[in-house]
Amino acid sequence: MCFICDRIEMIKNGSNPYFVKELDTGYVVIGDNQHFYGYTLFLYKNHSKTELFQLEIPERSKFLEEMSVVAEAVSKAFGAEKMNYELLGNGEAHLHWHLFPRRKGDIENYGNNGAGPVWWYPMEKMYSDSNKPSDKELSKMKNLLLNELEKLI
Description:
Elements: H1 3-12, E1 19-22, E2 26-30, E3 40-44, H2 57-78, E4 82-86, E5 96-102, H3 123-126, H4 135-152
Antiparallel strand pairs: 1-2, 2-3, 3-5, 4-5
Helix pairs in contact: 2-4
């Protein structure tokens, strides 16, 4: 089983503390690390496909629509100036979106004078344990995001 499938199993058995909401095609979860405050993932429910183009058109359309709604909710909940979207799958071949709320200066002086994609920020800093939300902060983040999702769905 892959890491994302493991996380989905945790959602199903009620033990994933980052879980926010189940939608038709996937699960909304707050990211484990929060250098980019509000970083959220949208995990596709099934592991059977590894590429977006492999989904039947109705399923693909629904997955994209729901991801867009999640991105809007993330933007509103966490005050993003811009949203970044990634559907990579090189590390985990399970469809999942990375949704990064962006703000000016959030990659410090890395990249192009402090501007650029999230992956221009050093991974060891982005995924540092110091960026993990406390239980209290995680609860607050989940409530903020859930409130915005409920307004849009």
